[in-house]
Amino acid sequence: MNFDYTYIILFGLKIFEPVTILTNAFITIFCFYAFFKIKTFKGILAKEWAIFFLLIGLSSSVGSIAHGAHYQLGKLFVNVIIFLMNAISLVAIYFCFKAATTFLQLNKKQLNPYVNYAVIAWIVVLLIFTFVYNKFLIIKIHAGIVLTYSIIVHYITYLNKKEGSGWIAFGILISFSSIAVHSLKLSVSDWFNYKDISHLIMLTSTIFMVKGALLKLKSLETGNLNLKV
Q1: Which of 47, 124, 134, 216 is the most buried if burial means most Cβ atoms within 10 Å?
Q2: Taking the model in full, what pTM does it have?
Q3: 101-130: string of b/e by CB count within 10 Å (b at 16+)?
Q4: For 136-190, what is each residue's pLDDT tens digit?
Q5: Residue 109 has what pLDDT?
Q6: CA–CA distance, 170 with 168 (Å, rounded to integer)
Q7: Smallest Cα–Cα separation from 228: which of 157, 152, 165?
Q8: What are the φ and ψ backbone dihedral angles of 7, each rounded to 5 degrees?
C-alpha cells in the first residue's frame, strides 16, 4: 500500500491519514445502512446485493485500520490487514457479478452453474495472487472487468425499461472515475489526496447503486417488473 504520511495526535496516539479514515468511514456507514435496508427484502437477488454492500463496508473499515496504523504495529500487521482488505474486496466484486447474473436469469428455472463455477475458481486464483503479492492493482483490474460486465447488463435492462437498472448502471459508470483517480494519483493536497477523492467518488457511486437496487427489489416484490430481457 502506498501510504501518505499526514497524521494527527489523538489521546496520545499517532493516527495517520485521518482524512482517508474519515472518507472510508462514510463508505462503511452508508454500506451498513444499505445492507440492513436491502436485507428486509426476500429472495436471492436481495441477498446478493445485501452481501455485496456489507462486504464493501467491511473492506473500507479494514482499510481504515491499515491507513491509521501504518507500520506502528509492525510490517506483518500491516500486510495481514491489507490482505484482508483485498480479499474482502475480491469476494465483494464476486457478489456484484452474481447480482447482475441472477437478475438476468431470474425468469429461468435453473441458473447455469458453469459460469458461476468458473468465476469462483478465478476468485480463488486471485486470492492466492493477492496473498503472495498483496497488490491493490489486482483488485483494480478485476473490479474493472466485473464492473464492465455489470454496467452492460444493467444498461441493457435499462433499455428494456427495467426499474432501477439505470441508477445502477450510472452508479457503476461513476465508479470507473474512482479507479482512474486512484491510478493516476490525482490529488488536491497531501491532506486531500487521490485516496480521499476516490473514496468520495465511491460513496457517490454506492448511493446511486443502492437507489437502483432498492427500486429493482421493490418492483420485483410488487410484481411490477417484467423479468424477460
Answers
A1: 216
A2: 0.86
A3: bbbbebeeeeeeeeeeeebeeebeebbeeb
A4: 666 667 777 888 888 998 888 888 877 899 999 999 999 889 888 988 999 999 9
A5: 44
A6: 5
A7: 157
A8: -160, 165
3-state SS string for 101-133? HHHHHCCCCCCCHHHHHHHHHHHHHHHHHHHHH
Closest C-alpha among 1, 166, 142, 133 to residue 69: 1
What DSSP string describes the chain?
------EEEETTEEEE-HHHHHHHHHHHHHHHHHHHHHTTS-SHHHHHHHHHHHHHHHHHHHHHHHHHHTTTT-HHHHHHHHHHHHHHHHHHHHHHHHHHHHHHHTTSSS--HHHHHHHHHHHHHHHHHHHHH--HHHHHHHHHHHHHHHHHHHHHHHHTT-TTHHHHHHHHHHHHHHHHHHHHT--SBTTB-HHHHHHHHHHHHHHHHHHHHHHHHHHHHHT-S----
Contact call for residues 135 and 177 (beta carbons, < 8 A): no
> 75-105 vs 136-159: helix axis angle to the nearest 10?
20
Residue 1 pLDDT class (50, 70, 90 cuts): low
- What is the longest distance spanned by two Cα atoms in the chain? 60
CA distance 137 to 156: 29
Q: Strand pairing partners for 222?
A: none
Evaluate whether 21 touches 67 at the Cβ level (below 8 Å): yes
